Amino acid sequence: MLHYKTYELDDPEAPWVVFVHGAGGSSSIWFLQIKEFIRHFNVLLVDLRGHGKSKGMALHKEDRHYDFEDITRDIIEVLDSLRIQKAHFIGISLGTILIRNLSEIAPERVSSMVMGGAIIRLNIRAKVLVTLGNTFKRVVPYMWLYRFFAWIIMPSERHKKSRLLFVNEAKKVAQKEFMRWFRLTNEITPLLKYFEEKDTAIPTLYLMGDEDHMFLPAVRYIITRHTNSWLEVIDNSGHVCNVDQPLEFNTRAIHFLKKMSSTDALTATVQLRLATC
Fold first, then answer.
1. Nearest one of 210, 203, 202, 197 to 253, comparing CA atoms
2. Separation CA 100–CA 229 (nearest Å)
3. Residues in domain AB hydrolase-1 (predicted)?
4. What's this model's pTM, rounded to 2 decimal places?
5. Mean pLDDT, to the nearest integer, of 161-183?
6. Domain coordinates of the chain in residue numbers?
7. pLDDT given for residue 163 in this prediction
8. 21 touches 48 (CB < 8 A)
9. Contact 92/21 with Cβ under 8 angstroms?
């Protein structure tokens, strides 16, 4: 099972918030969120397979080539072990794809979703990056590829802290594990297309940096098609907005989750919709 860490309030009615990191990261990328969130919610942090303290998790022979569903079910296994029937989910980057996939596999487990630096669609630049990565992954050291991708996605000097954080975390991922995760790029495009066409109607807040030029345009489009979806753009921030602007990220996410945790969630949804009109 995945490595995880929990922070629980004394209040038995306190809702759960599950944090899901992106590829190459670990639960440590949420260090700027934990202090604020544990004041209001029970918190569950997971390290995805091959990442953080889950990098040593045993794999059966048949699991050595896995897909998004396998990784998503890893998260559900942790929820089951902790007897968490339903939770709010917060993700960053590729973690948002896993949360969206979880909302398809087990929608009854998802109260709401906060998608930071959400990956909704791959634009031309992103597709070129994936193609280059698949072409050179056997001959170029994987950390060269990761540094290059990080620089393309987070190019500004203002993004340096986020970029270095993800690069340093990626160094802890074994090369064989990196290759397994990179194979997942082959199924990203059809999966994202399915997500775009199907609206879950689960309350979803997209938190995007105004400098996240690779992924922000697609999110602006998707909220016009999906119900119960809202976008808030954080100024002076790139793809990893929870690190670039943690105060704004925390304030907006907590406000949304507290609304969604109210006894009358339907009323909260209507209020949020009116506020954005």
1. 203
2. 13
3. 15-242
4. 0.86
5. 74
6. 4-275
7. 77
8. yes
9. yes
CA distance 76 to 85: 10
Number of Cβ atoms within 10 Å of the Cβ of 150: 21
Task: Say which DSSP state 143 is in.
Answer: H
89 has which bridge partners?
A: 18, 113
What is the mean predicted confidence (pLDDT) over 225-233?
A: 96
The per-residue DSSP string of 181-230 comes to HHHTHHHHHHHHHHHHH------EEEEEETT-TTTHHHHHHHTTTSTTEE
The position carrying tokens 């993004």 is 159
pLDDT for position 239? 93
Which position has the token pair 């969206």?
100
CATH number assigned to the domain covering 4-275: 3.40.50.1820
SS3 category, 123? coil
Helix (H) or strand (E) holding 113: strand 110-116
Cβ–Cβ < 8 Å for 166, 240: yes
Q: Contact, 9 vs 41, CB < 8 A?
A: yes
